[in-house]
Amino acid sequence: MTKVAIVTGGTRGIGEAISSTLKELGYTVAANYAGNAEKARAFTARTGIAAFRWNVGDHQACLDGCAEVAAKLGPIDIIINNAGITRDGVLAKMSFDDWNEVMRINLGGCFNMAKATFGGMRERGWGRIVNIGSVNGQAGQYGQVNYAAAKSGIHGFTKALAQEGAKYGVTVNAIAPGYIDTDMVSAVPAPVLDKIIDKIPVGRLGQANEIARGVAFLCSNDAAFITGSMLSINGGQHMY
Ligand code: NAP
Question: Please, what is the Cα angle at 85 between 28 and 137, to 5 degrees?
């Protein structure tokens, strides 16, 4: 039986590349999304990968969503915690809701998805969790105390959970992407983006596929001895 993977935020951007790459490698993939049903339908038509709608910031919705995927596709072997949002602003202008929403979705989503699946992975003696962090969680970023705190939290979450899975064949790792050419980055004003690109030693944005290939490696049996690690894929922007 093929391994079953859920990719949160798996219908667009980096998540779409991860979903497609895992499918090409023979995994059975379920792509989760939040609400953009039009993009999700187009994604399924393009890739043949089933899309499931729920909010990863909602604990019960994650338990129910994972149960639905397991009933349709089989026990969940792999979770890619990729769903993420930004609500940028300097601290003086950031509302508590902007803080809370980013923590609830970006960091809380990792907890919710792990709660739903980690026990089963341990019982079956094999599992992979890959959490998508960010260079801005490693280095900080002006106007992103919420996002940087959530992403930095993902890095700690990864290292702690890795210790709980290690004896049971379950690895937990993180990838910290630099600036990748997706809708999230298109939202950055062009003059700001030009300044960011000037600071990337390879001189360009990354491509979603370049993150997906890192994820695929961490999911493979070849990566069984890698756990609690943080793989930076950022064109040399931040050497951590
Ligand atoms: P994106 O293009 O904005 O796509 C976000 C995806 O996440 C969409 O599928 C979206 O679903 C889903 N999503 C958002 N909130 C969700 C929720 N509450 N529940 C379930 N799904 C949700 O983002 P991206 O640029 O590909 O980024 C993917 C991940 O990489 C994020 O965690 C981001 O922080 C991280 N990252 C990105 C960059 C970058 O440069 N792009 C750099 C570092 C880290 P809908 O389509 O339904 O909205």
Answer: 95
